[in-house]
Amino acid sequence: MERTLIGDLHTKVGQRALVMGWVSVRRDQGKMVFFDFRDRSGSVQGVALPLSGSIDAAKEVRNEYVVSVEGTVNARPEGNIKADVQNGDIELEIQKIDIISVAEIPFELSSETNLDTYLDHQPYTLRSERSKDIFKLQETIIQAFREEMKVQDFTEFQAPALAGADAEGGAMAFKVDYYYDKMAYLATSPQLYKQIMVGVYERAFTTPKVFRGEKHSTTRHLSEYSSMDFEMGFIKDHVDVMAVLEKTMRLIVKKTGLEIAMPAMFPVLKLREAQKALGVSTDELDLDPEHERALCEWALKEHGSDFIFVTHYPMNKRPFYTYEDEADPGYSKSFDLLFRGIEISTGGQRIHDYNKLVSNIKTWGLDPEKFKFYLEAFKVGMPPHGGSATGLERLTARLLNLPNIKEATLFPRDLNRIDTLLSTDKNTK
Ligand code: AMO
User: What value does the CA radius of gyration of the chain take, rounded to a whole number of Å?
Assistant: First the structure.
């Protein structure tokens, strides 16, 4: 018999069907055994009846066993219909149940698990409906990002993960032993490459894994995250970039189907205006996490918006490629996008003049020789351009109001863990 997906069983009422999947729930009632079976399309209740011939085999089956089940798809009596549950109007009466793989589970999936235990057992805990929903939503986010980029005529490219130099400063890049006793770095961002790609396609985007070696232990930092980056040529200034990012966020929100407060335009404040609104000194170079939270509360109250742009960060707080606002010396044409209490994106206009860029690299205490490759893009002619990057896991966490970014990360790498805890890992040096 051909396998039927559980999601298609409703088309087979009154007929026999073969289902393959996992056992999510098993309720042994002595004479009868009830199961919830699941496959990639959903779940269904099954029952092994006393005289069915399947009852002995059914008694052997446990949670997470992989099974092959033949049975009759029965319509449930009126009183037993669960309208709000998938396949709540049918039941699989089991004639035959074969074990494909046995399983030994560490704990019941429905039980309240603390984050560390959840992370320790991810090959198992990721099977929970809650986790599956989180990472399905993440898939939707990245698809929507890609869709909007294509609509706006951007070309997707694959950025390298190994880099010869670090764009964002150096201290936070992981070093890698490379050939001939040379050092390479794990890319902290595709920044240099996306700028180079502006010289190639004019509009380019990429969704790489990037790596940050800062020793952070917070609810918002990972050592490895997914970055949704784009870069575009022939802009007037950073406002053009913000418009593309805002449009992208709107499509992402729409595709997720979540209720997010978004007025006709996202509010925009200069950093100093934001600081004044919060009663913070304008000498501060950045917003602290608690100020980001307070500013987002302000934006929701005053503008009915879960998003707020903050622009004009001090030049000395931004990387060397940042464009200074001629009309506001010392401050940059750069921005952060804050969403529900946290920075989710950074971006801005970049310097496109070769000589200015070389001089900035020196001012930032870096060696232009190390950036020779990148600088060639400017030598051979670059238009005014800019772009931005959004952290996928931060956005996912805030969209779902998950308190810790690790819940929105498949296999999070942090200060204490790569899959297993470093302190308990036998392979640790
Ligand atoms: P920035 O360093 O601000 O900018 O990073 C952009 C966005 O990436 C996310 N992010 C992180 N997410 C998880 N863990 C981390 N350790 C982490 N660090 C950053 C945040 C952040 O807003 N090249 C510039 C972008 C640009 O100008 O285009 C950059 O990398 O969501």
Answer: 27
